[in-house]
Request: fold
Amino acid sequence: SAIPVITIDGPTASGKGTVACRVAAVLGWHVLDSGALYRLTALTCIKRGIGIHQVGQIADAAAYLDVVFKGDEILMHGQDVTAAIRQEAVGEFASRVAALEPVRAALLARQREFRQAPGLVADGRDMGTVVFPDAHLKVFLIASARARAERRYKQLIEKGFSANIDEISRDLEARDARDSQRLHAPLTPAQDALRLDSSALDVDQTVNQVLDWYKDRT
Ligand code: C5P
Reply:
């Protein structure tokens, strides 16, 4: 496809979502928060009492997600679930359902539908490796474990959730280990990805680096 894509992959809380939104805003492009699709699948399962071993039902939940991305809001069956999907318990279950191949297969076409003119910035774990292998620019965004735990802590507090930094650290580590070690679409940089360590950078600096790399390629 001629429609340009920038992919931003990386571990949990590396700043992918914030950077993707900002880069998309500057370029006037669409944005795909692929993690939200896994979180929505997880939330659906939690609500319906579907357990991690009920693979067929989880895949169905993924295939039939009734979701609308409306600006900053995410609506499922018309209900605002923007805050609900950010809970740690949902992220934790999301990383379990994300290890299931039928779930990933069910979400693949839906993710590719986000590729619309004039362009797309997509963030997740496998955007550059599996979903958009022909992306024009692939970024692998990393940050130290400490920086990521602090960012996630601030995010949760700002959203009105209670949070404990040690618990978050342990949770991030467990989630990253699961995402990196799984068989299907593990978290790993694409061969042609550029690595960006945001530990010592603020959001503007990180966004500008991505934009500079993109300009270099056009
Ligand atoms: O990025 P976020 O924390 O919202 O993603 C939640 C979970 O969804 C991740 O821990 C990961 O297991 C899964 N995920 C994935 N592939 C993606 C995006 C997210 O497996 N492209």
Summary: The CA atoms of residues 18 and 91 lie 17 Å apart.
